Amino acid sequence: MKSLLCLFVFLASLYVSSASLIDALNAAHNSPAFKNLTHPEQLLIIELLAETEAGELKQYIDSVGFHNVLAVIDKLPQAEAHLLTNYLINELAKEENQGSGALGKRSIRSLVEVLNTAKADPAFQQLSQANQTLIIQMLTAAENNTLTAHIDQIGYSTVLRIIDMLPVKEKHLLEQYIFQHLRAEMHLLG
């Protein structure tokens, strides 16, 4: 409980506009949950904070890979993951850019199966029509090997917001699906 409280204080300090980067870094280093992360994961969190302060969060996420950021968020306890996700959403909303690109397509059958599976999920059915459409667009982009470009277009904060509103099981499944397809696209690009 004490470790969760420490991490909560760390993440809550991110929301305080008067908190300095040094304060946020000190809070991170004193958090037991932070100490349970691997050194590369700790470094990623520290660099996320620093890049937020510098106003270059999107550029940093582009350089390390969105899937790596999602992987670290996935390792945090649910409450802390939610706080960090909202923090990143807010910061990305301040600086997000638009982009586009394309690679190639997968089979129509695969896309139909993925979409049917998503639409049959009760968690999906509970989402608003707009959020259902966003997920369908992400799934379609993933199956067409254009997920990276699609995420650049809609923005990291939109993806994080969608992921964050799902129940734990579906959240994890969507994160893994996104990881898999972003990695596949990365390999296709060389």
Quick summary:
The chain is mainly α and 190 residues long.
Helices and strands in order, then pairings?
Blueprint: H1 2-15, H2 21-29, H3 32-35, H4 39-54, H5 57-64, H6 66-75, H7 78-95, H8 108-120, H9 122-125, H10 129-143, H11 147-154, H12 156-164, H13 168-189
Helix pairs in contact: 1-2, 1-7, 2-4, 4-5, 5-6, 6-13, 7-12, 8-10, 10-11
CA-based gyration radius: 17 Å
What helical percentage do the residues reach? Answer: over 70%
**Average pLDDT across residues?**
77
What count of structural domains? 2
Strand/helix succession: HHHHHHHHHHHHH
Please state the overall shape, judged from the principal axes of the Cα atoms.
Answer: globular
Q: What is the overall number of helices?
A: 13
Strand content: under 5%
What are the low-pLDDT stretches, counting only 5+ consecutive residues below 50? 1-19, 97-105
Biggest beta sheet attributes: none
Structural class: mainly alpha
Distance between the termini: 44 Å
Tally the beta strands. 0
